[in-house]
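My convention is simple: the sequence line spells out the residues, with the fold written below as integer tokens. I include a record here:
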Amino acid sequence: MARIVRFVHAQTGPSPRYGVLEDDGQVAVIEPHPFTRFTPSGARVPLEGLHLLAPVIPSKIVCVGKNYRDHVAEMGGEVPAEPLLFLKPSSSVIGPGEPIRLPTDLSDEVHHEAEVAVVIGKLLQRVTPEQALDGILGYTAANDVTARDWQRRESQWFRGKGFDTFCPLGPAIATGLDAADLRVRCWVDDELRQDGTTADLVFDVARLVAEASQVVTLLPSDVLLTGTPAGVGPLLPGQRVRVEIDGVGTLENPVVDRQAGATAETRSNGHDTP
């Protein structure tokens, strides 16, 4: 198993780079990136002090609704007969430590949703579940931030799911994991709100990737969010939200009011580069 991070560091130049986290706390820089054949560059930088970015900027983020029975129950719905798929825009992606900016001018009910994210490693088009597993590079942590009031108000979830900063990803891509029983937890400040496991998924990872590939061609670095367990709840300015996935690590983001001022998240998170 390896944990791959994407980062910027003065020693390696201004452009985002990829590296493999080693046991001694160093990051071995790789060339060119993990979505093709890569080699070690020979450079090593300490993890401490690195500016970690979202591990990928996908062409698309495929999401799955109602994929944990306990979450379906808390929302008052019914378990679907087939995966409920929708999209989030890539512009919603931020990385570890980047602020989730609440659109308080448009929504007063924004929720966290801790999820296991699948990172696609090669082109997948109309594949079987068995073939789907072979096309997965690894897994990372995600927070499918949702404006719940907009989600209820509209049958299409563009606004409910698509605001800038509504898809934190990270801190690393963990390869070689068995996704059959990964623990998924979410804290807001010191309150544990979500505690589930992928063993309780209605549709497992292989089925989800295969189903998505029947509709859209999945490209290397695309991301598929697998659904959230029960315990979703509101986020407020000044809070910190942490998503922890077994084998991946902890994704932590502060929560702020976007009306209080904004920065160029897209630039700071390397959206203009692979």
Remarks:
- DSSP finds six helices and 20 strands in the chain.
- The helical segments are 69-75, 129-134, 148-153, 158-162, 205-213, 265-268.
